[in-house]
Amino acid sequence: MKDIVVIALGGNALQKANEMPTINNQLKNAVTTSNHLVEIIKSGYRVVITHGNGPQVGNIMLQNEISKAMVPPMPLDVCGAMTQGMIGYIMQQAMYNKIKNAGINKPVVTLVTQVEVDKNDKAFENPTKPVGPFYTKEEAEKLKTKKGYVVKEDSDRGWRRVVPSPLPQKIVEADIIKKFVNDDVIVITIGGGGIPVMKDAKGDYVGVEAVIDKDYASEKLAQELNADVLLILTAVDAVCLNYGKTDERKLRKVTATEMEKYIIEGHFADGSMLPKVEASIRFAKSKKGRKSIITSLDNAIQGLKEEAGTIITN
């Protein structure tokens, strides 16, 4: 069978920096993104697409805040589900049109996906993931008192709510995703890292007020699908040592062990490149012959050919 590639799209796939998040702009960006993804499909890969949702879920939470006097606000897990449907629709439509026009006869489906987390994950003791709008210190203190939010100052830009970011333990809908992939369906799934859920005392799933990192969830999915490649697309062409300094150096072909050494040396920023590198290492080490690639959207096909980006192997 054809190789399976899990493609983790960065936030810039739909929303560019300093660009208004209108539906027209997001549709336009989805078309551009689909141009690159179709080239991967044409080259013979079975494709599973994951994506972030940071800007979109933040906007939904802001809408919740503004309209709360008239409409009951939704919890974070529901907001995440809303973004999965919205972004999935935008990407699904763009992908369908592009593959049809390319003469490819493949269905495209978006799957609203839950991801199980461990209730004992230490992330629940130390929430760190900023979500939603910025507040003044006074507004943040009121939210802390009234709603029990954990609030922290965010880079001198104001105060924000922070939530736990637990590690993914299981992709709940993995079996149906496998069936889609085996039927050569293009699947858009685990948007925003998936909807975090855990089991209650009865063994039933319930939603959790948390955010799962998209790259960790994509790696977990890639393992559960027995994928061949994890392709993480971001804003830069390759992973760099000494990023932004005069002695910056791009990494091309490296081993997982080498990347672990670079982590210890402190080359990768928390919440930015570090999760991508850690997810890539985990996937590359999980089975002989697997590889992870970190590169930009523009270099996606070249990355799969090992002609661009950072290629991580065991």
Give a brief description:
The chain is of the alpha/beta class and about 325 residues long. Helices cover about 40% and strands about 25% of the residues.
Identify the notable features of this structure and list them briefly:
314 residues, alpha/beta, 8-stranded mixed beta sheet, 4-stranded mixed beta sheet, 23% strand
Notes on the protein architecture:
With 314 residues, this protein is of the alpha/beta class. It has 9 helices and 17 strands. The chain has helices at residues 23-42, 54-67, 76-101, 137-147, 174-182, 214-224, 256-264, 273-286, 300-304; strands at 4-9, 46-51, 108-110, 114-117, 129-135, 150-153, 159-163, 168-171, 186-188, 195-199, 205-207, 229-234, 240-241, 249-250, 253-255, 291-296, 310-313. The protein has an 8-stranded mixed β-sheet, sandwiched between helices. A hairpin with a 5-residue loop joins β6 and β7 (159-163). α2 crosses α3.
